[in-house]
Amino acid sequence: MPYIDTLLKLDEIAVGESRCVKLGDAQVGLFHREEGLFAIDNLCPHRGAPLHDGFVSDGQVTCPWHQWQFQLDDGICRNIPKVRVATYAVEVRDGSIWIDLEQEGAKQS
Ligand code: FES
Prior knowledge:
The chain has 109 residues and is mostly beta strands. The protein has strands at 4-9, 18-23, 26-33, 36-41, 55-57, 60-62, 69-71, 87-93, 96-100, 107-108. It has one domain (4-108): Rieske [2Fe-2S] iron-sulphur domain (Rieske Iron-sulfur Protein, 3-layer Sandwich), CATH 2.102.10. The structure holds FE2/S2 (inorganic) cluster.
């Protein structure tokens, strides 16, 4: 599947901020960190909390409901390593953020 334009500009999401981006039926958590952009499945696999609302530190997001922690780069749950959320490839094209839902890889510098 080709990259999809999120209709979000890079300068609309400051470093340290996150967004929920809806692409078709998918909800993607988009995180802008010093290390780059990370895109993951936004729904926590435990009970479906919106991960983009979680606290981010040390490359991981903490679920706002029950505090499971997910690594932004590979989606692995720090609490239960066999659990993970999908990660997606991100590109910035002419200042706009594009995401490929079929390609793994959460970060774009
Ligand atoms: S909904 Fe995320 S840890 Fe429970």
